[in-house]
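# nightly structure sweep
# worker-07 picked up a monomer target from the shared queue
# config: single-sequence mode, recycle default, output format = structure tokens
# input follows
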Amino acid sequence: MKTKEIVFAALFAAFMAVLGMIPPIPLGFIPVPVTAQTLGVMLAGCFLGKRTAAVSLILFIILVALGLPILSGGRGGMAVLIGPSSGYIFSWPIAAFLIGYTVEKIWPKLRLWKLVTINILFGVLLVSLIGAPVMALVTHTSIWAALISSAVYLPGDIMKAIIAAAVAFQLKTISPIEEKAQ
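# output follows
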């Protein structure tokens, strides 16, 4: 990796930590709160591209594992990474990679609606399809019940997908993907 890519990865890991300062919204009937950090996952993929986005989120997870309280609600440590939220957290580098991969492929013909669609597919649906079954395993509930209850995240996650797409689209000219495309 180039120095610039390492700096971008570190900056986005720090951005994820800043998003973690926004208090979570506990739902009561599901053990995983609503957080703003999935916005950072989608923005990383759209703005950084596959490799740097995945590295930034892997770095973020390493920092969480080391005990830094950078997850929403001031959570951190290994206990979080084996708890109900673990599937969602570990899906973040995968989602960012797939968002970045797809965005890089369509970069010359990039449109806002395409970014929104990519974010919904990988940043919303994929994260839920990985996170909900893991939450079900950890909480000893049925996978079907976990998938149904995780539908409560969809309206907020779709709003985050639109916001991330709009921000990334506006920053297209300064994106590291733009440099690679030229």
